[in-house]
Each structure stands twice: as structure tokens, then as C-alpha cells.
Design goal:
Elements (H helix, E strand, L loop, with lengths): L2 H5 L3 H11 L5 H18 L9 H13 L10 H17 L3 H4 L19 H11 L6 H13 L3 H5 L6 E2 L4 E5 L8 E5 L2 H16 L11 E2 L9 E5 L4 H10 L9 H11 L6 H8 L4 H20 L16
Antiparallel strand pairs: 1-2, 2-3, 4-5
Helix pairs in contact: 2-3, 3-5, 4-5, 8-10, 8-12
Length: 320
């Protein structure tokens, strides 16, 4: 599609046309773009691309943060920046972004505080509360997999049926959009295995039948709309917020459960850093150095096991 003709289209038509022209992107990248476009469409749908100016983008940022856009929950700075970046790419394809770019300011992203690990009592309380209500079951199962495998919420959200092998007891996580051929093979312990089986059964009930279908099919918010297994669901944040508040941990983030899993594994002196990296992927140098002493002590113990006490010399055989 020519730049001029794209510029004349309303966003609701221009965005799908732009995405359709993006041939050389991974399925996960395409799915992410679809989610960003869905959010943008709630604000820009009827605006022609050539009508969009920086004031519209600034207003979108404000309303998106406040959660005042129709049928859209509030979002953080990182998510909104991804969405406006998608908008900028669409406008650039139409030859319109150069005039806006000097005046556009992405939202500042506050560096999140260090993740936290749960105490034994907190972990028991969280799972007891999470399992107490049927409407929290999905959030419970997904959170359990994060805590038991270290797979982040975003990685779980993008799992497809082919990525879950309950026969062998593994899930396969692709290492980001730039490394589609690098896969983390993560074993499932008993609890994560049961959670994965429940999610698979639910996925089939929601129409996921092909290996390429998502484990967590998209749930349309429109009354009477059918689930779409070719798209991943948005999130389980609403249920998560309710269950964490009920558990008395209102500041516990979904991603903290990954930090909790990493911490528990690194505290185990019998687990090497290499094994932890193969399971979790990236681990910050700060965390590795923090728990390196446990492996150092284990190495010392291992070396000590090689020691032996030399036999006493037979003095009668020693020549004077």
C-alpha cells in the first residue's frame, strides 16, 4: 500500500493493513502488535492517520494511565510506550511520523524495586487463598507455574499447545522475539505439572485444538463473542489483584514469583549456576553474586571429599 493512500485511511483500517505488510516477523511479535493495535484502536479508531497529531498521543498516554479509555484498564509506562511505538511505526510507514517525532515524549519508566521472595508462611497463605475461589483458578494455576518453574507471566501467556508436554513433564519457552530458535526446556515438578494439565484441559474447552493455538486463548469482552485461540489472552491481573489482597500481600507482583523461584534455587548449594541459568534464562549478576557463596561452600565440600589420609610409612623398609 502506498504512503499517501495509507495516510488517508482511519486508524482502524490502516493498522491491520500495516501489520499485514509486515511479513518477516515472528508469530510472537505479530501477536504483541495485535494487542498493541487493539488498545490503540479504542482511542484512534476513527481518526485518519493524517489527522493524528502529538496532542492526540499525549491525551492517549494520560487516559491510558488513568484507565479512562472505554473498556481499557489502566496500563503502566512500559506498556503504553510499546503501544505508542507501534503507532509511530504505522505513522512512519504513511510518511507522517517525522513531523511528530520532535515533539513526542515517551513516558518515563520508573526502575522497579528489587523483587522479593516469599517466606514459607507467606507462600503457604498465598496458595491457600488462591485456591479458595473458583474464579481465581486461572490466576492460581498460572502463578503456580511461575513460582515452580520461574517462567514469567509473559512467557506463560505466549505458550502454545505445542510448548506444553505433560507426558514428559516439560514446558518449552522461546527466548524472546529475537531468539526464536533458542528454547528453554523447563521441567515441571508435581505441582506445576498438575497446573499445566488443568490449563491444557481448559484450553481445549475454549477451542484450542491446533498445536499453534495458545494455551491461554483470548477471551473477548463482548457479550456472546467466542474465544479466539489464535491470540493469547491479555492477562489475569484482575483476579491476581483480588487474590493477593485477600492474602494480605497487596504489593506482591506477579513477577515477584519468578524472583521467588530463582531465590529458592540459588539458595540450594547443590544447584549449579549453569543449571539455574538453563532453567531461568537471564539472571542478574547481582543475584548470582549474592548466592555464589553457597555454591563456593559446596565446591569446597566437594574438593574435601577428594582428600585422603596417606598411610603411615613402614619404617622397617626405610634404609638408615
Amino acid at each position: 500500500m502506498q504512503e499517501n493512500s495509507l495516510a488517508l485511511l482511519p486508524f482502524a483500517q490502516a493498522a491491520p493493513a500495516w501489520l499485514e505488510a509486515r511479513k518477516k516477523i515472528s508469530p510472537r511479535t505479530r501477536a504483541d502488535y495485535e494487542q498493541y493495535i487493539l488498545a490503540l484502536n479504542s482511542f484512534f479508531a476513527d481518526l485518519k492517520l493524517l489527522e493524528i497529531h502529538v496532542g492526540h498521543i499525549q491525551e492517549y498516554q494520560k487516559q491510558r494511565q488513568r484507565g479512562t479509555i472505554f473498556r481499557m484498564r489502566s496500563a503502566g509506562a512500559s506498556r503504553i510506550n510499546h503501544e505508542t511505538s507501534t503507532l509511530s511505526q504505522i505513522l512512519a510507514r504513511a510518511g507522517l511520523w517525522a513531523a511528530i517525532e520532535p515533539y513526542h515524549e515517551p513516558l518515563a519508566i520508573t526502575v522497579s524495586s528489587r523483587g522479593r521472595a516469599l517466606s514459607h508462611e507467606e507462600e503457604g497463605r498465598l496458595w491457600a487463598v488462591a485456591g479458595s475461589k473458583a474464579r481465581w483458578k486461572l490466576a492460581y494455576m498460572c502463578s503456580l507455574i511461575t513460582a515452580m518453574t520461574g517462567a514469567g507471566p509473559g512467557e506463560i501467556r505466549h505458550l502454545r499447545l505445542r510448548d506444553v508436554d505433560t507426558n514428559r513433564g516439560f514446558i518449552y519457552v522461546y527466548e524472546g522475539v529475537k531468539n526464536q530458535h533458542r528454547v528453554r526446556e523447563i521441567p515441571l515438578n508435581a505441582q506445576a505439572h498438575e497446573a499445566a494439565k488443568w490449563l491444557l484441559e481448559r484450553a481445549r474447552e475454549w477451542g484450542s485444538t491446533s498445536p499453534d493455538h495458545y494455551l491461554l486463548p483470548h477471551r473477548a469482552c463482548r457479550k456472546g463473542a467466542e474465544p479466539d485461540p489464535t491470540r493469547p489472552m491479555g492477562s489475569w491481573k484482575t483476579a491476581w489483584d483480588k487474590l493477593r489482597n485477600a492474602a494480605g500481600m497487596p504489593t506482591l507482583r506477579m513477577y515477584d514469583l519468578r524472583h521467588h523461584a530463582v531465590t529458592k534455587m540459588l539458595e540450594n548449594p547443590n544447584v549449579s549456576e549453569r543449571t539455574a541459568l538453563e532453567i531461568f534464562g537471564h539472571i542478574s549478576n547481582r543475584m548470582l553474586s549474592r548466592y555464589s557463596h553457597t555454591r563456593t561452600e559446596a565446591k569446597k565440600t566437594a574438593v574435601e571429599a577428594l582428600s585422603f589420609t596417606p598411610p603411615a610409612p613402614n619404617l622397617s623398609l626405610i634404609k638408615k
